[in-house]
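haha ok so turns out i had the wrong file open the whole time. this is the CORRECT one, sorry everyone. sequence first:
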Amino acid sequence: MKPLVVILTACTLSACSNTPVPTNQAKEIPAQQRLTSAYSATNIDTGTIIIKRDAGEMGSLCTVYVSIDGNNLAKLESEEKVTAHVTPGRHIISAVPKGACTGGLSEQASTLSKDETQVFRVSFASAGDFSLSPTAF
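then structure:
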């Protein structure tokens, strides 16, 4: 019986892999999911950081909380993005899943220039691994 359970679990997980969402197709989060207004306003002296979440069932039972430099920014659900306008310089982008899912805190360092846009992708792999990474998608 145990081998059957292992095989069924493996088959189920392999069917749940997530896929990247193109930035222009990701939905901007609703206002109530933004946890601060600190990065909402753009001006001539800022750069842009976009953090988006993959599409798919893996990790669908949890919400991903993202922050910049330790300041809570937003809650992301599947296929959503948040846009932040930040001052040029070095920043730490963080993401952590909360709810019925695997994975822990994932962080990336970013050095942003004025008028530059950087895009980061939050994803769950079919094995349940959680990550935050720069993306070209």
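The first helix runs from residue 2 to 14.
again sry for the mixup
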